[in-house]
Every structure is written in C-alpha cells, then in structure tokens.
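F.,

This is the one I mentioned.
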C-alpha cells in the first residue's frame, strides 16, 4: 500500500517557512512542503536529531502545531498533528485536538480553513 493510500486526509503542496521549537534549544528553521489537517512533511537540516514530539510554528498562518514524528527521510520528516493553536485576524485563538472521527473533523476543518484563508489573504495584501 502506498503512502497516499495510508493517509487519512489528503495533503496539499506548500512552501511555508516554519520553525521547529523545542524546550531549552534554539528554534530550527524548516520548510513545510505539504500539509493536511492531520499532518505534514517538513524539510529541515537535521531531521534525525529531532525528538519524537515537538512544536511546529508556521508564521504565515499564525498557527502552531504539536507534532509527532511518523517517518524520517534524509532531508525531512513526516509528522502527525496532535494539537493545533491558531490566532485568527480578529485576535481570537482557536484550539483543536486530534480529530476523533471524520464528521467531527469536517466541522473543525471548515472553521480553520476559513480562518487560515483570511489570515493568509490579509498578510499577502501587506
């Protein structure tokens, strides 16, 4: 079975700049190459040195993800999102946990995608 067939949610190609944050260590720059509501593939300099769990911050969308590593490659790693925090353009903070089932997930996803689009559009206008 291919990786696409194993994924619960489809991914979209991106080129977001991001930061990997770990306690008591400097932040590490990364690039988010593809993303879905359930996970992402990120490229970074030393993926093998990252712990199993860390924070991924994507400034372009005002979003912070609590991530768990799922697979590692020479140039990056695939992560699963465990929790997400987003600050929308109105100053409101949105929190989500890992989706329990697909129907619950659709409601949260629609709200988050709408907020992310608004934030992204606002930043590209500046």
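My design for it:
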């Amino acid at each position: 079975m291919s990786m696409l067939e194993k994924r619960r949610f489809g991914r979209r190609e991106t080129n977001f700049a991001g930061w990997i944050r770990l306690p008591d260590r400097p932040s590490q720059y990364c690039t988010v190459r593809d993303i879905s509501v359930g996970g992402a593939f990120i490229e970074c300099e030393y993926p093998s040195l990252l712990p199993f769990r860390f924070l991924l911050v994507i400034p372009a969308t005002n979003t912070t993800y609590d991530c768990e590593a799922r697979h590692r490659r020479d140039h990056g790693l695939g992560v699963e999102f465990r929790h997400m925090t987003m600050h929308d353009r109105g100053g409101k903070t949105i929190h989500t946990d890992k989706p329990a089932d697909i129907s619950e997930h659709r409601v949260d996803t629609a709200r988050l995608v709408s907020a992310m689009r608004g934030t992204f559009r606002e930043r590209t206008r500046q």
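The helical segments are 3-6, 102-125.

Talk soon.
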